[in-house]
Amino acid sequence: MSGTRKPGQRATPAGAPGGMQLFDRDGSRKYLTVAERARFLRAAEQAPREARTLCMTLAWSGCRLSEALALTADRVDLAGGVLVFATLKKRQDGIYRAVPVPPSLLEALDLVHGIREAQRRRGRGSAARLWPWSRMTGWRAVHAVMDAAGLSGPAASPKGLRHAFGVAAVSSGIPLNMVQKWLGHAQLSTTAIYADAVGAEEQDIARKMWE
Questions:
Q1: In whole angstroms, how far apart are CA 56 and each of 1, 37, 122, 190?
Q2: pLDDT tens digit string along 182-191?
Q3: Relative orientation angle of helices 158-171 and 49-61, to the nearest 10 degrees
Q4: How far are the Cα atoms of 125, 169, 171, 204 from residue 34, in angstroms, in the given order?
Q5: Backbone angles phi, psi at 118, to 5 degrees
Q6: Residue range 73-86: average pLDDT?
Q7: Which domains are delineated in the chain?
Q8: Which site among 34, 51, 95, 106 is 20 to 30 Å from 41 CA-CA?
Q9: Chain segment 164-181, per-residue pLDDT in tens
Q10: Torsion sign (Cα): 61, 162, 12, 86
């Protein structure tokens, strides 16, 4: 990145496609912290059921909003404990990735969207989209929960949840190549940007030693 960087603003790692950054030009974070993501999930518990499951899916899988909205019942692997997403940023179709998610999310998806019932039908639910919404409807649902959680700014967005997943994964010691796989990045250099953000989370990491 050219020019002077504001305090707290990170440079783009070499080779990061499209110059992806975790801070905007004003030095504001574009990702939610661990505490902010927890606030978001608590607020989601009070949202309408379909909005709640969408918010949980975004937070716990790191998928793109468009990938969540394309999710069908047959790609919810209850036995394997994963969600299978079509990676929509790839240049060719038919690229999928399996992302492990908490049992609580799988239970919520089954309760709200009837996953087991759909999978017993012909096609195993391949035509049953969990959220038959437009991208704008999904975006509004997420932002309503962000508002309820008292979150604002660049981080209060579906993309902020995706970045939060990457930062949380790297902070937890997940290998970069695994985070790359879960997020569906074509290049490891894109995923490496989350390692640069860990410095901003060091206080939270250090606090775990004090408690």
A1: 34, 10, 28, 24
A2: 999 988 988 9
A3: 40
A4: 34, 10, 10, 8
A5: -65, -35
A6: 97
A7: 34-200 (1.10.443.10)
A8: 95
A9: 999 999 888 899 999 999
A10: positive
User: Does residue 173 come out as left (phi exceeding 0), alpha (psi in the -120 to 50 range) or beta?
Assistant: left
Phi, psi of 28 (to 5 degrees): -80, 140
HEC profile of the chain = CCCCCCCCCCCCCCCCHHHCCCECCCCCECCCCHHHHHHHHHHHCCCCHHHHHHHHHHHHHCCCHHHHHCCEHHHEECCCCEEEEECCCCCCCCCEEEEECCHHHHHHHHHHHCHHHHHCCHHHHCCCECCCCCHHHHHHHHHHHHHHCCCCCCCCCHHHHHHHHHHHHHHCCCCHHHHHHHHCCCCHHHHCHHHHHHHHHHHHHHHHHHC
Sign, Cα dihedral of 191, 167, 55, 182: positive
The count of other CB atoms within 10 Å of the CB of residue 97 is: 20
Distance CA 36, CA 149 (A): 8
Spell out the residues 6+ positions from residue 151 whose beta carbon is closer than 8 angstroms to its own.
Answer: 32, 36, 39, 40
**Type of residue numbered 132:** P
Please give the structure tokens belonging to residue 195.
């390692």
